[in-house]
Each structure stands twice: as structure tokens, then as C-alpha cells.
Automatic annotation (TrEMBL):
UniProt-listed InterPro entries: Flavoprotein-like_sf, FMN_Rdtase-like_dom, NAD(P)H-dep_reductase
Domain of life the protein comes from: Bacteria
GO terms of molecular function: FMN binding; oxidoreductase activity
Annotated ranges, domain NADPH-dependent FMN reductase-like: 8-150
Gene Ontology cellular-component annotations: cytosol
Protein name: NAD(P)H-dependent FMN reductase
Pfam family membership, one: FMN_red
Family annotation (Gene3D superfamilies): 3.40.50.360
Length: 188
């Protein structure tokens, strides 16, 4: 049996973002966890335009190569972690767009969240995301990573400074993602 594929999806595309550092930090912990084959996906590199497909994505009848490529990427994931900033009490528009592009590809897969921001620590972004992901039949897990004042957690090289409590939160979420994924996708 091969390990399920966990895709860690970096949502922020903003120049000067801290999101890349938190994505790399979480992906490293996920690799050490050992329950998944980990892929790091950066929406800044995926580079999707605003949704430009004429048909509803549930039909899977995609007109554009960028959509077919994005579909193939997400279809091979067995579980996801969205690494999301909090912008104006919500998650960012780039992530919403990337989610909306697809439909069946997301179904019946566990999803967790690394939320970060200022004082909000990504909590409100995650609450918004839960509403959206359940519409796409994803199964959000309760355990999460929340980071207040995220920029303060980076060192001079822009890497996340290790923190035992945060690492423990990440591993608790990974354990739960593994448990739920085993039920949702027993063949993976
Ligand atoms: C447009 C904008 C809106 C923001 N709104 C919030 C907010 O509502 N709550 C919060 O805690 N932080 C907020 N922040 C702070 C960001 O979460 C913080 O700057 C974070 O680093 C952004 O992620 P990024 O650097 O990966 O893009 C906001 C930042 C921006 C740029």
C-alpha cells in the first residue's frame, strides 16, 4: 500500500508574503510525520487566471489547458492542507479562485488548515474556508495551526523559527488527517 498524497497548498501570492515560509515549514513537518507522501503546491507558481471556464466545473469539461493541469494536480491528492493568510477577516481571493476552478477533484478528501495573520491568527480565514470546503464535500478536520503576528515568527533568513507548541499543533493535525483519510480513502 502506498502512502496517501498530502498536498500542502500555499495560498498567498503577495510579493513579500510570509506564506511561502509557513508552507515550507509545514511541509517539512509533514514529511517527518511519515503518514503521507507530501507535495508542496504554491499558487504563485500555479498562476491561474480568474476563473475563465464557461461550464460548471462539476461537468469536468474544461476548455483551458491551465484548468486541465490544475485538475490533474488536485486529483492526485488524497488530502489537503491550505496554508492561508487572513485578509480582512477572511481568506484570500487567490485561494477561493483556485478552489472554484474544480469540483469533483476535491470530493471526499480530508482538509486541514494552517492559518496565520495579525491578531486574528488566521482563525476567521479558517472558519470561512470550512463553509466553502464542505460544499465541495471535503471533510475539514478540527485540529489546526494558528499563527498570530506571523511575520514575527520568521528569522533573518525568512524561515519559520521552530516552536514546540506549533510543531505539536501541526502533528496533531497530521494525525487527524491521517485518521480521517484512512476512512475516506481506504485504498490510498
Ligand atoms: C489586505 C490585508 C488584509 C489583512 N487583514 C487582516 C485581518 O483581517 N486579520 C489579521 O489578523 N491580519 C490581517 N492582515 C495581516 C496579514 O494576515 C499578514 O500581513 C500576513 O502576513 C499576510 O500573509 P502573506 O504575507 O502570506 O500574504 C491583513 C493583511 C493584508 C495585506
Amino acid at each position: 500500500m502506498t502512502e496517501p498524497v498530502l498536498q500542502v497548498i500555499i495560498a498567498s501570492t503577495r510579493p513579500g508574503r510570509v506564506g511561502r515560509a509557513f508552507g515550507e515549514w509545514f511541509a517539512e513537518i509533514a514529511r517527518e510525520h511519515g503518514g503521507f507522501r507530501v507535495e508542496l503546491i504554491d499558487l504563485a507558481e500555479v498562476g491561474l487566471p480568474f476563473l475563465d471556464e464557461p461550464k460548471h466545473p462539476r461537468l469536468g469539461d474544461y476548455q483551458h489547458q491551465h484548468t486541465r493541469d490544475w485538475s490533474a494536480t488536485i486529483a492526485r491528492g488524497d488530502a489537503y492542507v491550505f496554508v492561508t493568510p487572513e485578509y480582512n477577516y477572511g481568506y484570500n481571493a487567490v485561494l477561493k479562485n483556485a478552489i472554484d476552478f474544480l469540483h469533483n477533484e476535491w470530493h471526499d478528501k480530508a482538509v486541514g488548515f494552517v492559518g496565520y495573520g495579525g491578531i486574528g491568527a488566521g482563525t476567521r480565514a479558517i472558519q470561512q474556508l470550512k463553509q466553502v470546503v464542505t460544499t465541495l464535500r471535503m471533510v475539514p478536520v478540527f485540529e489546526a495551526v494558528n499563527v498570530p503576528f506571523a511575520a514575527k515568527s520568521l528569522d533573518a533568513e525568512g524561515r519559520v523559527v521552530p516552536d514546540p507548541e506549533r510543531t505539536a499543533a501541526a502533528n496533531a493535525m497530521l494525525d487527524e488527517l491521517a485518521r480521517v483519510t484512512a476512512k475516506l480513502r481506504p485504498a490510498s
